[in-house]
Amino acid sequence: MAHSCPKSSFIYDSCKDPEKSQQEFQEIISKAPKNSEWFAFSDLYQYQGFWFTPKFLEGTILAQEQFRHQSNDIILCSYPRTGTTWLKSLSFAIMNRNNSDSLINPLHSVMPHECVPFLEVDLFQRKSIKYYPKVPLVATHLPYSLLPDSVMDSTCKLVYICRDPKDVFVSLWHFLGNVKDKETKIDEFSLQKGFDLFCNGVSLHGPYWDHVLGYWRASLEFSENILFIKYEDLKEKTSLHVKRLAEFMGYPFSLDEQREGVVEKIIEICDFHNLRNLEVNKKGEYAIFESVVVQNNKYFRKGQVGDWKNYLTAEMQERLDCIVDQKLQGSGLTLC
Fold it and tell me: Is 141 in the active site?
């Protein structure tokens, strides 16, 4: 089933030639390879080797043209469903820990995506903004190769989080089944169908392994500016990696803070179960785009390592592990 491009909710005013930029986006959409199997309300379009919905692609192109970094910017990078919400929470709490009101109140009254805006989603849209503090912290799902030139040419710091692709797929499948378009009813989407598409590299911001490899290789080349974290390591040794994250961000914990339990306090505030049980995350909702709304509780499903075992067969596990091993061969990185 083909879908027409939705009316734009993005702002082109800061483009050199707004009308020309809009026309160029429509031309890209009209010529891009398309897949209609993942979503009931939107096709996926391939752009420079990765797959996007029209709105994510439009935001990507605008970010590439308009985003101007600040010298102290920290950009949290991730593929969807790899620990983005947790990374946002921890980073925000680390950066704001010297102000107890900023540390406690925002994360208890608004969900983490309202504390750390998405570069390609929130900065260039006509949308209601509940709360974005003036801190040098933004996030993105963009692949490394598609980051704005202003970021690539800068010395701002990037933090990238990745996860076992089997858990990524299961979480993505659950999440996308809960993304609601206000005007379109979403049909049942089978696990097997989603799995086949994921294995073929056709998924939102995928192929997943290409997304990971881009940041992994960049982290080896620019280790001072890119911190690469595995979700499983962060879960296993949270305190160690929170200290490592704070050091990298330029907000290291002093010895006094460590003795006073500040690290543990931040971990507790950002704990998955604590965040999930907050009223705002149980009943609130987040508008990714004007017509695409997600209930906040869908960002806090389980957060477990190895939950894929409850969904994937042995054959599915072997198939995906073999694909990932082949794609990462020679890189020095393992994910499975």
Answer: yes
**Rounded to an integer, what distance in angstroms lies between the CA atom of residue 85 and that of residue 99?**
21
Among candidate residues 141, 174, 241, 273, the one labeled active-site is 141
Helix boundaries (H) for the chain: 18-31, 54-66, 84-95, 100-109, 112-115, 149-152, 165-176, 191-199, 208-221, 231-236, 238-249, 255-259, 262-269, 272-276, 279-283, 314-328
If one counts every other C-beta atom within 10 angstroms of the C-beta of residue 304, the result is 13
Average pLDDT of the residues in 223-251: 97
Assign 56 a pLDDT band (cuts: 50, 70, 90): very high
The distance of Cα 56 from the centroid of its chain, to the nearest Å, equals 12
Q: How confident is residue 277, by pLDDT bands cut at 50, 70 and 90? A: confident
Nearest residue to 62 via CA among 110, 116, 122:
122
**Please, which residues have CB within 8 angstroms of residue 28's CB and are 6 or more apart in sequence?**
45, 47, 57, 61
Name the β-bridge partners of 286.
294
pLDDT in tens, 158-186: 999 999 999 999 999 988 765 555 444 44
How much is the CA Rg of the chain, to the nearest whole Å? 19
Report the relative pairing of strands 226-230 and 157-162 from DSSP bridges: parallel
* Contacts for 114 with CB less than 8 Å, ≥ 6 apart: 106, 130, 131, 132, 286
Enumerate residues 6+ apart whose C-beta is below 8 A from 16: 65
**Rounded Cα–Cα distance for residues 95 and 88 (Å):** 11
Q: Tell me the percentage of the chain whose pLDDT exceeds 90.
A: 56
Rounded-to-integer distance, Cα 189 and Cα 288, Å:
21
Environment class of residue 8 by beta-carbon count within 10 Å: exposed (0-12), middle (13-18) or buried (19+)? middle
Whether a cis peptide bond, with omega within 30° of 0, leads into 207 is yes
Query: What value does the mean pLDDT take over residues 217-233?
Result: 96
